[in-house]
Amino acid sequence: MKVLVTGAAGRVGANMVRRLRAAGADVRAMVMPGDPQRAKLDTLDGVEIVEADLGDQHAIDAASRGVTHVVHLAAQLVRGDTPVDRFYDVNAFGTLRLLEGVVKNGGVERFLLASTDGTYRPGDPPLVPLPEDTPQEPADYYGTAKLLGEVILRNHAAQYDIPFAITRFATVLDPVEARQHFRVGSVRALLRRVELGRDCNIWPLFREHPEMVGLFDEAVGEAPDDTAVALSGPNGSWSIHLLDVRDAVEGVYLALTVPAAAGRAFNITAAEPTTFEHGADVVAELDGVPRLDVRLPLTWRLEMTVDAARDVLGYRPRHDFRGMVESAIAADRGAADSFIPARI
């Protein structure tokens, strides 16, 4: 098995490359030209690294030559100052160019596309939890671009007989990142997405309650940013499905290799969602910080089912939120090397 991994210097990508090498696969790691994060790959033996922009068909054709499998992880998550057409070009037509490269080079045994819970309109989820057959009506740039990528993949797969699978990730974090969640600073940053207006994947959350940042700031007062904080609303605690990068990698590996995965999409996330109440309890206990409760005028629950991945792939996520924070603490002490951090 020779696997092309795009986005190989990313949060999931570097860990995916390591997982594939551990399984004995040959790996061609595709990175953006000049990406400083490519240094993550320097410690991995036997990895061929190629530079290619998702807008460069010639470079993509060369990167696709001679591979038997593709793991397409490369994406731009935050638009920022990127023009909308370039943002769509990266996240949707980058997938098209990669598929064209595969076709020109004779096809592959499996093309794996990493997609997102953002295709389900996460700021106003139609169901709790969200199964894979939930209507995909994202209403934001990133979710729409990724959904277009899914459609392009399905159509190209039918046109050119490309075996494929899709994984839709929840919020992917490495343990170091997880340790910063459910704190005053991270929750304030979440709520301040209201400032992006409709250029935000959770804008519907603020449609009727644009004042939530002010309510939150009033409630927490001068509490330090690392203070643990639990959000609740009229229907109980807020909740979110988080995904440890190590479980994300395992879900992708299974979708890439299990025969029954062909032609299907799978939600990939933790076994259970994390409530903000539980998350705050964990960081308060393990890091010894104060804890606050804040009540807001709505309850947000972004949760996904994992039944299909469990039943078809044999997916068994091993890391809950407590385990992620414990892994981060162990890494701080030099006692663990189970993941490559998102940033080096």
Automatic annotation (TrEMBL):
InterPro entries: Epimerase_deHydtase, Lipid_A_modif_metabolic_enz, NAD(P)-bd_dom_sf. Residues 3-268 form the NAD-dependent epimerase/dehydratase domain. It holds the Pfam family Epimerase. This is NAD(P)-dependent oxidoreductase. It comes from Jiangella asiatica. The lineage of its organism: Bacteria, Bacillati, Actinomycetota, Actinomycetes, Jiangellales.
